[in-house]
Amino acid sequence: MSKVATTHVAERGAPSTGSWFLLVVGVALITVMAVSVPHLLGGPGWLSGEKFLYLALIAYLGAALLYAGAAAWRHGNLLAGAVALTRGGFLLHTSAIVVRWASSGHAPLSNIYEMVLVFSWGVVALHEFAEWKFELPFLGAITIPIAALSLILMQVLPGEIRPLVPALQSTWLQIHVTLAMLSYAGFTLSFAVALLFLLKDGVSARSLLSWTSGLVLGVYGVIALTLLDRGMGLSLTAWDPATQDKIMLGPKQPLLVSIPSLGWPFLIVLVLAAASLATNLFAAPPEENRASAGWPRRLFLATIFAQALALALLGVKVVSGPYFVAQYGQSFDVHLASSPFLLAGIATAIFASLAWEVLNWKYDSIVNYLPQRDTLDGLVYKSVAISFPLLTLMIIAGAYWANRTWGTYWSWDPKEDWALITWITYLGYLHMRLTRGWRGRRSAYFALIGFAIVMFTFFGVTYLLPGLHAYA
Amino acid sequence: MIKRSALDKFLQFFSSLKCGLILLGLVGVAVTLGTLILQRPMAREGQIEQIYAPQTLRLLNTLGLFDVFHTWWFILLLGLLGANIVLASIERFPQVWRLFARPHWLADEDFVRAQAFHREIPLGAHAPEEALALASRKLLGLGYSVRPESLRQGTLYIEKYRLARLAPYLVHTSLLLIFAGAIVDGTWGYRGFVNLGPGMRVQNTEPLSAQGAPRPLGFTVRCDAAGMDKYPDGTPRQYWSRLAIEEGGREVLSKQIYVNDPLTYKGVRFFQASYASSGAPGKLELDAAWTEGGATRHQTVVLQPGQASPLGDQGAQVELVDLLPDFVLQGNEVSSRSDEPRNPAIHLRVTQPDGRQASVWFFPKAPEMKAANDSGFTFQLRNLEMQYTTGLEVAHEPGQWLIWGGCLLLTGGLMLALYFAHFRIWGVVGRDPKRRDRRVLVLGGQTNKFREGFARRFDELAAALESELRSSEAPVAEPIPA
Q1: ipTM of the shown complex
Q2: B231 reaches A (C-beta below 8 A)
Q3: Domain range annotation of chain A
Q4: Residue B250 contacts by C-beta under 8 Å, 6 or more apart in sequence?
Q5: What is the dihedral of CA A61, A65, A66, A68, to 10 degrees?
Q6: What CATH number was assigned to the domain covering residues B103-161+421-471?
Q7: Residue from the list B28, B231, B269 with its beta carbon closest to the beta carbon of A421
């Protein structure tokens, strides 16, 4: 244990960065709570479950913060607070589902909003189970932010209660979607545990910095490639406030509105993340050259500020529309709801960056706090072993339902294809694990890749490759 | 000789897990391509030509990438995967089957000691048979039944979940069943559609794609009624059609079908797929007004196509000439944009008692449009019911039961493979290796999965047996037989 401690002392960045961050985020959160709670308590929104969900989100954000703090300081009270807040949030989350179910008259499983609602509930439920059964104190620092991110994403998804279209009035739908959400939540758990395993297995803060800055680079790279236009404007889909929907010119052809010069902050993040990644990859190891060792970290810190700035500017600019589109000689509004992906990407990058800062600051403490390597490795397998049959049953239930509704059990629809790709991926994992005895890092990396594919199947296909699963 | 060994090598690779995983990966890549490239069955007419550049189009067309899931190479890939599963199972199955059919029920001391988990338990004062009987009773109490035939021959034998050994083969068989079902459906099954208005009959299904041909059903489908139920806000709640099957002019079956609830006859299923206005009017309710002796008089007129209705009390008549459900004016041409009654244009003919005829056009949703009207009557639309046709999807899938059977087996097989381990424990009376004159119960066990869990279970059992043999030795102090 002492050996681990000494090797990583040099790797730690400025010791105050993490605590400073925790403090700032904490103050921000408490301000948000103080401002929003009184506002929340009055007014409508209780019956659709939205208000419960806001409260649950606040509880989850607080719990995530306390989990991070508990791991950093190894403080029992903080952990107890995190556990209590999570359970409180979970109760509110459950109430949101129950209330929505009761007021709509059908199980909340019929559109992407309701699916994310149930998915995030599944993540927290599995988190509770894993925490109780396997004593994983730090798990909440990964699972609860994922749940919180999902609830944030839900704020921009169309959440009004709509009656069920005829094709969705089937018990098989409910079985199919419930199984899908449970298995996705299970794979999320395997992802969280695989990350913990990699930490315990000695993946250094420095390599994790490469991964995190790579993630930020990837997110902003995709944004720059798809949304940035020549005049450094950021293109967003036009929004019709009357219908509360995107303005489409045709199928898969949204009407794009360019917000002038909003591209710059995104480009700055991109450049800073690239610089942080490059210096981290090519700079000398920290033990040899102390003077330059801090650069990747400093650049990464700048990336976080730039990300916060980009998000804030995006929020301000979106609200201060409408924007003129020369092509149509008309001005159009924009709304974050028309690009949930953009928001999800930005929020994920910020969460991951903050998580890295906390990790970097208290690396040894956190790593020592984690359960044994083998325990974590076994848990990655266990969570996949539970989720995989659920995934299989989900595909079967979907095929059976499609057969009753459309007369064919398989139509090579993009969602089906990606469910099949997910299935094949985890089938590969199980074969390698059970017959080739894959353990440890390879198994953990496989779990990370599998989770990325699950998330693409869940969100990516819905927004990028529409087909028969138009409702979700 | 050399040829033979090359074949052997090939077969060996072809039946290996590595080959299976490579094939599975290739299937994954192909499916990914099929979702990233626009597929012909999903695209609109001409959409693909519009999106891709001519060179790209030619290349992707040659490779079959516009219809990945029906190209020969994708089918071949699935075929190879199936063959790999079969060969891999053939190669390994006999060994597993031997183990499954004839487990090693009797063991000797050395065999038991060679097991991955083993323990020596002192017999204490007990005679060997007595100790075995005590141990087997204790095990029964703990929920493990000891095989009596083995016990009679001096071996304590317990095992659980022997079926788990077969789990991989159950999973593989289930995949083959699903493949077989898909082949059966692809060869003998068909899909099509029919459009039916109330009162209509069909004997054939229309093909889904442009190049197919109509296919005789072998019986007649009659539609008695079709309709749509709405939610209070006007969005569709349910579509339904009342269908009947006729054979030899006699009705043999009738059912009201809904979305999610098809009609099945002779393996052919009819699904409620669409419901739309046919573009032809069904029934109009009009309010007619005219002046008579200085006063305005009103009358409600119900019109059906091809039927004239009396108008006023002077013997005038009105009939429907034409109705455009969704009219649009382009120059002087009037045409209908769609079959839905969004903006109807109604053309009536009024016949006066003296035989004079007058043409009346009117536009209920566009009152600013005025057409010349010398009939003496003005009309307003009260209600318009269009004629509806119901669109039915037709599917014949003779292989679907193979698919569902395969799915059940797949689920069961996966559960067995992932959650159940086959474990066996043997116990025989032997000599203590340290003190050859002392007898011990040698306990050994093995499992095919979950070693950590089994280790705990084995330790618990051994401890329970040890305490059992020790505690029941005290009261009966018998001399140890030499």
Answers
A1: 0.81
A2: yes
A3: 44-201+372-464, 217-338
A4: none
A5: 140
A6: 3.30.310.50
A7: B28
